[in-house]
Amino acid sequence: MGNHYYNSEDLKKFGNVGELQKNLADKFFDYYGEVFKDSELTAREKSLIALAVAHAVQCPYCIDAYSSDAFEKGWSEAQMMEAVHVACAIRGGASLVHGVQMMNKVKEITM
Amino acid sequence: MTDNLIIKERNISLKGQHQKLGDATEQLRILQEKEPGKSEHISFEKKLESSGLYPLKPTGIEIFQVNIGKMCNQTCKHCHVDAGPDRQEIMTKETMQLCLDVLTNNPELSTIDITGGAPEMNPYFKWFVEEIKKLDRHIIVRCNLTIILSNKKYNDLPQFYKKNQIEVVCSLPFYTQNRTDRQRGNGVFETSIKALKMLNDEGYGKEGSGLILNLVYNPAGAFLPPSQSALELEYKEALFKEYGISFNNLFTITNLPISRFLDYLIKSGNYEMYMEKLIAAYNPFAAANVMCRNTISVGWNGNLYDCDFNQMLELKINNERNHISNFKLDELNRRNIITGQHCFGCTAGAGSSCGGAVA
What we know:
The complex is a heterodimer. Chain A is mainly alpha-helical.
């Protein structure tokens, strides 16, 4: 494993996951390629969504890939940062909205 | 009408600064040599061979590209010519006459592509264009836009282009100020927009006018261009909505790792990553359609090259007749094209040429 769990060089080896299970890897990469094509949403729009999701799931490989991809596709740094804030707001909101459950539970057990 | 915004930003070229990378030999050394501790890249020739394209041969020369000088009013960070206000290499009227003689004798050369530096800064630019026009050829001028407003004497260029029915290809690396100015210098975007409006006022880029105005996108950093067709739509929408500007086509051009862009790649620590990216994105279809197969490039001193990039690397064509004074089209059409690691820039992804993507 070396001294680090993450190594940027490993991103280039993503395709190698097929070495142990080719069939499923092929299906995944075909699907992945299809998802990011221009369709109802443009490839450009999908790139910005991917950047936000990469931050939500905190995947350094995805952040590396989609920071470049979104910038290449013409999004400005300010637009990219707003997308990160969207991810942050949803993540933060997801914690906070559970506060309602806490309130419900406390109500349930108190006089 | 002049615009002084960009004048303040004038810098000098790598050559003017006597930097090592101002020398083509040093650039070739970096491109060809394995850096200590780095993995060796596959050679471009091996890649061509795997696509059945080695040695690379012309498909028939139709485009005669002439670089009439390295002098420019700008000093863009990515410039493969290392052009700038301090560059003195300018094509003489005598060499231009040799070009005209070649064109007269070779009607197959149907498109004349005039480039620089800022080609308009050559004192014989207008004469040269008018003489080519008499030969009834299609003329392309690669204009950096700001030249039109850099000095009163250039303010009539849009009318001159119109009078001679020139196809104008203009650099505008992005439709926002930030990205354009980062690459081309402060104030360039604003001046470029003014110049585009002047061209639009003459009918350039307007439907039905027959006056072609094409824009060129260059990535402002160590990355590849996005899809040309998608970006063209964005450019059209943004420029029309914000500034009322219209144009015909957008050409996406990949930055080749030579000259000032190579300098940027090395200084920013992106060289290795960029080369890997270009090589990984090698597209055999783009390789089959590279521009050097139907273009010949003429340098300011009359030397002949396979393309403007080989010209800047001082790689003269692989033929004894390598000067405009002994031009022989049928021999040129049989020659082997000189290639190198920089050529990966033209074959990556959708490919890249002076006319944009090729695949």
